[in-house]
Each structure stands twice: as C-alpha cells, then as structure tokens.
Amino acid sequence: MAAVPVTLSILICCLLPPAVLSYGFPAALKLERVIPANHEMELSQLMARDKARHGRLLQSLGGVIDFPVDGTFDPFVVGLYYTKLRLGSPPKDFYVQVDTGSDVLWVSCASCNGCPQTSGLQIQLSFFDPGNSVTATPVSCSDQRCSWGIQSSDSGCSVQNNLCAYTFQYGDGSGTSGFYVSDVLQFDMIVGSSLVPNSTAQVVFGCSTSQTGDLVKSDRAVDGIFGFGQQGMSVISQLASQGLAPRVFSHCLKGENGGGGILVLGEIVEPNMVFTPLVPSQPHYNVNLLSISVNGQALPINPSVFSTSSGQGTIIDTGTTLAYLSEAAYVPFVEAITNAVSQSVRPVVSKGNQCYVIATSVGDIFPPVSLNFAGGASMFLNPQDYLIQQNNVGGTAVWCIGFQRIQNQGITILGDLVLKDKIFVYDLVGQRIGWANYDCSMSVNVSATSSSGRSEYVNAGQFSDNAAPQKPSMDIVGKTLMLLLMVINMFL
C-alpha cells in the first residue's frame, strides 16, 4: 500500500497543466476504496458505475456538444451539409443532413422499403436495426414521448403493433414514414479545455421504413435527417430536458474549399453578432424580414409581402440549398441587380434563370445586398451569397441569380446559399436568432450555461486544428482536478 501515494503523485504531475501546480492545492488527499479489496466485482456492475459517473460528470460540469460537419452549399457538388452521429449499443455511425426546417432525427431502418443502398457522397450508408442494439426499445402509443410528435401533427398510432408511428412530407415533395425508437446517442462533450469522449444520452428518433422523392436518389443520399426544430421531439429539446445541453445551438457553414464547418449545442460568441426576434407560435424558425436593399437602396417592395401569417413569412432553413423569394420580391430584386451591372456584364437567361456572362471577379462588379429584419438587424450578402457559378470556359464565367421565385406564395426561405460563411446562433430561451459574417474555417468561442447557472466558455482551439492552446483559467483548473479525481477513483 505504501506505493499508492507515489503512483498518485506521478499521475497528478502528468495530468495537470503546469499552472495547476502553482495554485497551492492540499499536499495530501484522503482516498477511500470503493471497489472491494478482493477485486471481485461483476463487469456489468463496473459498466453501471462508469455510466453513472459519466452522467454525474455531464450533469455537474455542463459543456458544449460538438458535431462534425461535412458537405457544401454548392448544388453542383453536394448541395447539403451533413454530420455524423453514433447511435445504439454498440454504436453505429450514421450520416444525417443538418436541417433547421424540421424537428425530428430519423435514420433509415433495416426494414426500409426503397431506401438508397449507396451514396454519391463517398460515404458508407448504414441501416439501423433495433434488434442489434441492446439499448433500443420501440416507443409505444401509450408512451408519453409519443405525444411529442403529435404536437407537430406528424405522429400516429399503429393499431396492428401499438407502435408510435410518423409520416413526414418535406417541401421538395419527398417524404418518409416509420416508427419511433428510444436508444443511446453517443457524442463528444467539451468541458473547458477537456474533451469528454463517448458521452451518452437516451433519445427518441425515427426508424424510417419508407422513403420517397429525392430521398431515394443515390447521388446525394445520406442515412437520414437531423431536425433542429423547437418541438419536444427534437434532439436539442430532449438533451436540454435532461440537463445535458443548453437550449441554444450554433453553426458556421463553410462555403468554399470543400465546405464543412462547425455545429455545436451551445452559443458561438462573436462580438459582431446581431439578433432579431423569432416570430412566436410558428412551426419553423420564422423571422420578420422588413425590406431588401441593393447598393444601399431599399427596393420598392410592399412590406406586406414579408408579413408572417398562415403559410407566409421568412424561414431560416439549413435543409434548403438555395434561397427563395415570392414573386413580388423576386422581380424587383433581379431587376436591381441587373441594372447595377448591365454596363459591365452580358445578361442572359438560362433555363428561366437570370444569368450573367462575366470575365472578371464577381466581387468587383456586383453590388452588396442587405436583408433588413426587425430589431434593426441586417444580414449583409456578398455577391457569392446570392449568385451561383454555373460554368467557367476560357476565362469567361456564367453566374446566375441563386435566389429562386416562388409563385402564388408569400414565403421567403433563406437556405445554405445565404447562410454559409456566417455564424448563426439559435437562442431558444431568448427566442431570437443572431448572425455575423465569418470565415468558418477559423476557430470560434462557444459558451454554454452549466447546471450551476454559470456560463462556461470553450476555447476556439477545440474546433480548429490550427488554433494555439490557451492558458488554463482557474475554472478550467478546477474542472481538471475534478476529472483527475474521477480517474484516480477508477484505479481504486
């Protein structure tokens, strides 16, 4: 037993950053054995203890949940952003589209009819089999969690097998149906400067047994859709109700150089952020767009065109590739752009879209655009935020307006074309959305509110390979010590 203090001293010196050793922690720590001296303890008991410890760690420390992002806005390359999730026990990887326009997480089920088998995105598609996960349980009609889906009129009960079923129809005409299951979601959590890998939480998600429309096409096929809406069935709502994540999430979608980006459950902190209120009692992330300006001049659009009512309004949606305007807004928008560049480019119409033949950089010719929202917040668009390059031949490029018209509907949808190269924060507690233009290949700072009510900050280096390490704060030091004591506890 005399060798134990020496071992612990070495462990402390190796694990704690140098700054910790200078703060005068007690020289002696009282340690108590929690595993019997004869070391007779079932593996299942050890696993249960570890799971409980991980739960206490997450609940007590709080943190930021980080998801990897791949894909790009470019419709000629990918046209969507997706992330990788680990579901089930043992965990299995699933690639799912990031979609702020829907609420539910669903993945293709092993019994899926018509689901794609391969993907042109060079990813390995997977199928979820509840029978192969020891932690999976179907959600029955009598389960209170089934009512979460009923809130959005997507759920129903299967009389034959008493399963909580769902059917979704998306704006592009595609659809999916299946049943809900409850299983483990595995994720990485970042607390201060420490990574807590393989953290777990029980979540309800959809097991898709049928898909239609674009969902069955293999060129851009993914395993499912990750809905980030506000309803109770969304993963962010489920994790927040368990105290594992704040009711705020953020993304920064990279537009150029292969795309990718950042997606976190937490608030990206950026001094240039502007916020606009969310329109209350709406099924999507609706905001009040008041006007559109080109070259600093407001366009002659009746404000009622942007008003929010039944089936109308402005929606922020990462599940949409381009951007869409109602006819009354689209026509003056395109006319203003064309008038501003008519002396420098050759306007052409290609397949009904307004395009321009140019021989120089679009940034040198095309005017800035601003979308002006309630609360005095404006979203400034560079030419690449409203134009799509169709081709480039012999030094001459053809760029087209990326905004599309929606006829006979008073709806505006801001998709990835507009959302890329900006930080977006969805503050569900404050019921507001914020943004700031940003180079999404750079690092960010993220804040999350812990169970103690304090704001915890994660340094940008956690989300970037090229960020320099930061000097540990006293808050991080305390958490590091706590983690250290837990590690020591595992060896006793």
Automatic annotation (TrEMBL):
It comes from Capsella rubella. Residues 1-22 form the signal peptide. Residues 81-436 form the Peptidase A1 domain. InterPro entries: Aspartic_peptidase_A1, Pepsin-like_plant, PEPTIDASE_A1, Peptidase_aspartic_dom_sf, TAXi_C, TAXi_N. One of its GO terms (biological process) is proteolysis. The keyword Signal applies. Pfam families: TAXi_C (PF14541), TAXi_N (PF14543). The active site is at D99, D317. The keyword Signal applies. Belongs to the peptidase A1 family. Keywords: Aspartyl protease, Glycoprotein, Hydrolase, Membrane, Protease, Signal, Transmembrane, Transmembrane helix. It is found in: Membrane. One of its GO terms (molecular function) is aspartic-type endopeptidase activity. This is Peptidase A1 domain-containing protein. Its main location: membrane. One of its GO terms (cellular component) is membrane.
